[in-house]
Amino acid sequence: MMNAITRLQLFNLSKVNIKKIHSNAALVDNCTSINNRNPRNLEYLRIAHRPHGYHLEKVIPSFWHKLVLTRSAKYITFDVQHFENGVVVSASSQEWPIKKRLYRCQDSAAYINLGRILAQRCLESGILFIHADPELPECEKTNLALQELIKEGITLNEPLRYIHPNPWDLQRPEKPWEIYEN
Questions:
Q1: 20 to 30 A Cα–Cα from 25, which one of 1, 47, 59, 99?
Q2: How many Cβ atoms from other residues are within 10 Å of residue 85's Cβ?
Q3: By the 8 A CB rule, do 76 and 110 touch?
């Protein structure tokens, strides 16, 4: 067992090592390994693989996260699906905390509130961009939910994937991980 004196000495040594690093450049220079605990990091950097499907398909699925609306006789459900892992975030009028505050489970107020709830859950999970499926039913209620998603800060189209340009390419897209300040 370590006694209290050796613990204090180890704690003071670690403080000294931390104080030696004064800037991000020094931190990067002293870094020996990186452990990325975020599995969606490459998607945020726009360099992750996106499915392209086959060229003979009518609709090519090219998205990371897709918004799916499911309507039943009584309830509505909004799901955000990842192309590999399935449903990541969902909001439904069938959930009891939501259902008990709604007058009806399929009126326009339900669509607006489900849009708000889904937007909040997406922002909490770090999803900022969603591919809005063009096959979503075009009706006034669905448009209200989509407007609410936009109002809360969710973008309904995903950014283009960054592809490293070849040396002979004329146009060089801006790298998403570099920040240019004005």
A1: 47
A2: 9
A3: yes
Secondary structure E strands in 22-85: 65-71, 76-82
102 neighbors 134 (Cβ within 8 angstroms): no
Cβ partners under 8 Å of residue 79, min gap 6: 67, 68, 69, 70, 87, 89, 90
Joined tokens for residue 147? 């407007």
The span from the CA of 10 to the CA of 1, in Å, is 14
Look up residue 144 and give its two tokens.
């209200």
Instruction: Check whether 13 has a pLDDT greater than 70.
Output: no
Side-chain-side CA neighbours of residue 91 (13 Å): 19
Query: 114: which 2 tokens?
Result: 């489900």
78 phi and psi, to 5 degrees? -110, 125
Helices (H), 3-64: 4-20, 24-30, 41-44
* Inter-residue contact 94 to 77 (CB < 8 Å): yes
* 37-89 confidence digits (pLDDT tens): 777 777 878 888 887 777 777 766 788 899 999 999 999 999 999 988 889 99
